[in-house]
Write a structure and sequence with these properties.
Largest interface: A-B, 53 and 53 residues
Number of domains of chain A: 1
CATH superfamily of chain A: Aldolase class I
CATH topology of chain A: TIM Barrel
Helix content of chain A: 40-55%
Strand content of chain A: 5-15%
Number of strands of chain A: 8
CATH architecture of chain A: Alpha-Beta Barrel
Largest sheet of chain A: 6 strands, parallel
Radius of gyration of chain A: 18 Å
Strand order of the largest sheet of chain A: 1-2-3-6-7-8
Structural class of chain A: alpha/beta
Number of helices of chain A: 11
Distance between the termini of chain A: 46 Å
Oligomer: homodimer
Chain lengths: 249, 249
């Protein structure tokens, strides 16, 4: 948190609003991380931040990064939290409890449900990569989510740090959009991600940089630094995407 | 929520406090479900409810049922939420992101980390039951958690609705305590759970009934009804446990 905001009455809201206003020209979605607000007891500021995005940038969807996963009756409450309390357009969820743990989210047919598949962190391999019927578990998850997705409202989380696996997921799920964290601070490579992950229309990726944008600067000009980092990332993505699109034609 | 509490200024706190005060003689732990408070934007009432338990019943631990699961840097924030903001003695977590997603919880060495293993809901089988190296995935999870648990602070969630699987987990993890939801509203059988799940000292189970207790009544006497249901469940557990203990001697 930049120094001049540390004594702010609502520091998360102030920080987030300035980041949003500075980066809006360059982004396709916002993905606030619920844990930052939860750790500080600042949920009200998250409500206000998302309301700010909806009010000022109605064409930019908000993904609540919450990674919830619970039995059906409880999942219904978490769906209510994400979609009604926070007004999120989509929410990230965990597949480990199966279909009945996701059904309450599917019931909100105008919202997105983004299921963890192949996460970007180093320790995920022991479980996501285990072989099940000659394919790694994360591909079984992708296959299952595709079956469950009767309303074209699902996406899959596939980390930029595993571009080869990202390509296997893409090959399996057709044009289902993928949410790709791990570019930026976690070191994912843009060219490898786009090459492996774009769909047949050279679309279908929502590439997320979090720390690489919001912590681009830590001084009074942090929002300008964030805008600069967002613009650079957008330009880098579009450059590679154009090249790949041209080479395809 | 009983009618006389619906207009209460802090209904979740009032409801929870009355349930706690009425049931305290009969319980070994409290397990508040974070989603109920999150859906209603009532996190402050959860903070106060847990503080009430600690202040009045210091020997009864509080398990925050949050089922969080996220990459390391974010998991550190969720651990802060559970252990510092809420002051929980233990928290439920999801294994799908692997060790680095749990390490921040392990760092709180005086707190419990309760990992989802074989959950009680019907839809969990497709992933938790897949065969990996000749054993179902949930047993791989149990094995892995036992390896990770360098500080004897872990438990596993193993639903009462699958007593046979509960027995397989018990056989694998020795005396690691198990958290067993699914008794009560979800229909799990106490005798089958105890027979399969008790450790060699006839201990090691934390059996959870949630809806069966807190919704035992819905009138003005709901707390008394909850106490009655808690006492009946405790007595039923102890009766079966005595019988099993006698038959073992």
């Amino acid at each position: 948190m930049p120094e001049h905001l540390r004594d702010h009455e609502r520091p998360f809201l102030a920080f987030g609003t300035e980041i949003v206003d500075a980066t809006a020209p360059y982004v396709s979605a916002y993905k606030p991380q619920a844990a930052h607000f939860a750790a500080a007891g600042a949920e009200d500021q998250l409500v206000q931040l998302i309301a700010h995005i909806h009010a000022h940038y109605p064409n930019i969807p908000v993904i609540l990064d919450a990674k919830r996963g619970d039995v059906g009756s409880t999942a219904a409450l978490y769906a209510q939290e994400a979609f009604e309390r926070y007004g999120a357009d989509a929410v990230t969820v965990n597949p480990y409890l199966g279909h009945d743990s996701l059904a309450p989210y599917f019931a909100y047919q105008d919202r997105g449900v983004i299921v963890l598949c192949r996460t970007s962190n180093p320790g995920s391999d022991w479980i996501q990569g285990v072989m099940v019927d000659d394919e790694p578990l994360y591909l079984s998850v992708a296959r299952q989510v595709e079956n469950w997705d009767q309303n074209s409202q699902c996406m899959l989380v596939t980390g930029a740090t595993y571009p080869e696996e990202l390509g296997l997921v893409r090959a399996l799920v057709g044009d289902m959009p993928l949410l790709v964290p791990g570019v930026g601070a976690q070191g994912g490579d843009i060219h490898a991600v786009l090459k492996a992950g774009l769909d047949t229309d050279c679309q279908g990726l929502c590439i997320s940089s979090s720390r690489g944008i919001i912590y681009a600067g830590d001084g009074a000009d942090y929002a300008d630094q964030a805008a600069k980092a967002a613009q650079e990332l957008r330009d880098a993505i579009n450059l590679v995407r154009s090249a790949l699109s041209d080479s395809k034609d």
